[in-house]
Amino acid sequence: MTSQIIPVDPFDFIIFGGTGDLSERKLLPALYHRQRDHQFSEPTRIIGASRTKMDDKEFRAFAKKAISDHVKPEYIEEKELATFLDRMSYVTIDAKSGDGFEALKKSLADSKRIRVFYLAVAPSLFGDISDNLKAHKLVTTDSRIVVEKPIGRDLESARALNDIIGDDFGEHQIFRIDHYLGKETVQNLMALRFANALYEPLWNSAHIDHVQITVAETVGLEDRVTYYDKAGALRDMVQNHMLQLLCLVAMEAPASMEANAVRDEKLKVLNALKRVNGNEAPKQTVRGQYRAGASAGGPVKGYVEELGADSNTETFVAIKAEIANWRWAGVPFYLRTGKRLASRVSEIVIEFKPIPHSIFGESAGPIFNNQLVIRLQPDEGVKQYIMIKDPGPGGMRLRQIPLDMSFAQSFDGRAPDAYERLIMDVVRGNQTLFMRRDEVEAAWKWIDPIQNAWDGSRQEAQGYTAGTWGPSASIALIERDGRTWHESN
User: Fold this and answer.
1) What is the pTM of this model?
2) CB 371 within 8 A of CB 352
3) Which distant-in-sequence residues (6+ apart) come within 8 Å of 201 by Cβ?
4) Catalytic residues, which ones?
5) pLDDT digits (tens, 9 = 90+) for 415-455
6) Sequence-ordered list of residues with C-beta below 8 angstroms from that of 199, at least 6 positions apart, any chain
7) Are 376 and 382 in contact (CB under 8 A)?
């Protein structure tokens, strides 16, 4: 994928949780790729910070192994890797006690460079780190702080956390990251809608029948046992990833691509979402939990067996959502996400309304609704399903085919990972793809009534066999409306 690489100003990138899983799998490989593409200006530095005791040499060895394990061999260039590792240093820090922050201050000295504090740690440490950065006078006018989801576990805790960080950093310095928004196809949704005359005139309730958003995973708990059982799929996936995707589909055209212009329009969508209260939750939501089954060609345990304890935490959620505004009145948005499902796929399906009348007769066969399918992962791309005549003699027979644009086939070269793009946006100070405080809190205002309805009714998570598409109630949720889930292929 060819594009002009514009170097950024020199910066210091401090990774709290520098020896953790996120740093190893995503952040260090992303930074290496930006090094390889010559996007760093001198003197840029990368500083690891965590409780683990190690020196600079050991951290460089950790980083080198991370690159070896998580970057394809054809992209590892010894000269670039050596330059990358030379940028690295390490500070042992205890976020709770504050030990090590003075050493970090000494390491940064009085540098006037941009400072990025990336909090790749448990959310419970966000406030402690933020407060210690301010207390030790490490927050400059050119500092940014990056926090991963979840921002709280409900509206009250989200507000409290936003208050703490907001006391230490200005809102323009806070980057609440959602890596889904850095995906190439997600950004192409904006281009598809607002850079083409074809779709936007049809992008409303007069022409669209319904929208489906699916984020399906084949993995189970993996190494997230402690976090996931406290969160569940509703908090872990719907509150952030899925609602952000819904916003990009449903929002009005912003005045520009400037950060607040985009985020203002997303906020309007969140505020227009109809609340799902206690009486409506059983009809409009499904919560499930995977049982033992088969995945990736072999047997897998159920959630409770993997956890090693009884739990009613949901690993699957399906929701029928509605947006109460002029553009979308009467158009349902069906959201579906879960673990241990039949295949790994993230996609948005826009299904258009049927033609008003068929001129072809029964012998032509059924006429299916047009669909626009935006595939986020894997195999990023866009498909437009249309009806055509089946080639050959024998009269008019119709069939549905996809007009297919695969990103891998359409563009040469390696597509940057979402974290690469988002990290560089942080350095530039561009908040367009990051959530504003009021967005986060508006999302919780919609999520909390659903969670409270489940808790209040003690609704049991419905079992589904690992390797399937979730509970049968999920199929019933959409088929009650005469629709069906899109099956990816």
Assistant:
1) 0.91
2) yes
3) none
4) 241
5) 778 899 999 999 999 999 999 999 999 999 999 999 999 98
6) 192, 193, 372
7) no
